[in-house]
Write a structure and sequence with these properties.
single chain; mainly alpha; 10 helices; 39% helix; 0% strand; binds heme C
């Protein structure tokens, strides 16, 4: 498995942090205060260590859950994948971005606390996390995220990656290492099929 080299992230912007901290401070509204009907804020399920073994996708050095961060707390994808709309590479957040919240947020149960401790420890020891990549293309192929986001819209992530907001652990929904997958959408959307557009 290919390991990632962490690039410096953006300085944690205040909005998401303030939003999440407000949710934490105010707590969950009582049942009576909650609106009836399907709630759009899905509470991520509690997972015991024994539940996680069967999850799809590579096991990461820290059990970082998208269903908690992007699902339950609705932190926007671009808060962490900061360059997805402006550069070929979406960007992977630095520990500094994580610590924008985790200097304060310590975790509400023992599983979460243990994983968040790893985040704090890595930050204190200045050891970047070596996340294992889930999607990666052969070196001869070029995939520009920003051009796709501009054409398909900022919420197009799910078109290619599936509903990450419900994933405790990210896995590959589409086989991105298959030229036919790229080409069929390019045909449908009348986009170039010129070999040199995708191949170096
Ligand atoms: C905007 C605020 C925010 C940011 C940024 C953030 N987190 Fe969290 N994180 C939370 C909240 C809120 C929880 C839920 C805490 C609880 O209730 O236990 C959480 C939970 C966790 C947990 C325990 C649950 C789980 O996901 O397994 C881990 C581990 C974690 N965060 C790691 C990270 C890492 C790594 C980063 C950076 C890549 C990060 N967090 C960035 C707010 C944030
Ligand atoms: C709080 C920060 C944070 C937020 C918010 C976040 N991500 Fe992530 N994302 C990460 C981190 C850290 C990794 C690397 C670890 C992993 O794969 O779980 C990652 C990995 C991924 C991957 C796998 C990349 C690979 O290796 O191929 C995808 C796909 C992804 N995120 C999509 C999304 C989408 C879509 C959203 C919004 C719905 C989102 N992320 C929101 C931090 C975040
Ligand atoms: C048209 C399909 C498509 C869309 C839309 C898309 N991605 Fe990707 N994504 C890919 C492919 C293909 C890769 C592998 C790229 C590579 O290896 O160069 C990837 C890789 C990633 C990675 C890992 C990159 C790394 O450097 O580790 C992250 C994170 C990610 N995508 C997040 C997102 C987010 C967030 C969105 C929405 C804002 C999004 N993607 C929209 C196809 C897509
Ligand atoms: C869901 C649809 C979809 C999928 C899947 C998809 N693309 Fe695209 N792609 C687009 C659209 C739409 C554009 C046009 C963007 C524009 O008009 O600038 C585009 C543009 C591109 C461009 C820029 C072309 C140019 O004119 O410069 C490249 C390169 C590219 N895609 C590569 C890929 C690769 C490689 C894959 C597979 C790993 C892929 N795409 C998968 C929809 C898709
Ligand atoms: C829309 C993007 C796109 C276009 C256009 C495209 N390819 Fe590909 N090609 C890919 C992707 C993605 C892969 C798979 C890379 C991987 O394995 O990660 C691939 C793989 C390949 C491979 C290696 C196959 C293998 O089994 O390893 C060859 C050879 C190839 N392409 C030739 C071409 C030729 C010739 C053209 C023009 C007729 C072309 N490609 C047009 C995206 C594209």
């Amino acid at each position: 498995m290919m390991k990632r080299i962490q690039r410096p992230g953006l300085i944690a912007g205040g909005a998401a942090v303030a939003g999440v901290l407000a949710v934490l401070t105010l707590g969950t509204p009582s049942r009576a205060q909650q609106k009836a009907g399907p709630s759009d804020s899905t509470k991520a399920s509690v997972l015991a260590a024994s539940d996680t073994a069967g999850l799809k996708g590579p096991r990461q050095p820290i059990f970082f859950r998208h269903d908690i961060h992007a699902g339950q707390y609705k932190i926007e994808c671009q808060y962490c994948h900061y360059s997805v709309a402006v550069a070929p590479e979406p960007g992977i957040p630095s520990l500094q971005t994580c610590m924008g919240c985790h200097a304060v947020v310590g975790g509400s149960d023992s599983t979460n606390r243990a994983e968040i401790l790893k985040v704090r420890k890595a930050f204190t020891e200045n050891k970047p996390v070596e996340w294992t990549r889930v999607h990666f293309l052969a070196r001869h192929v070029h995939f520009p995220h920003s051009q796709h986001i501009k054409a398909l819209g900022p919420s197009a992530c799910a078109t290619c990656h599936g509903d990450v907001t419900r994933m405790p652990q990210v896995f590959k929904v589409n086989n991105v290492n298959n030229m036919g997958w790229c080409i069929s959408c390019h045909i449908e959307r009348k986009v170039t099929r010129d070999c040199t557009a995708c191949h170096y």
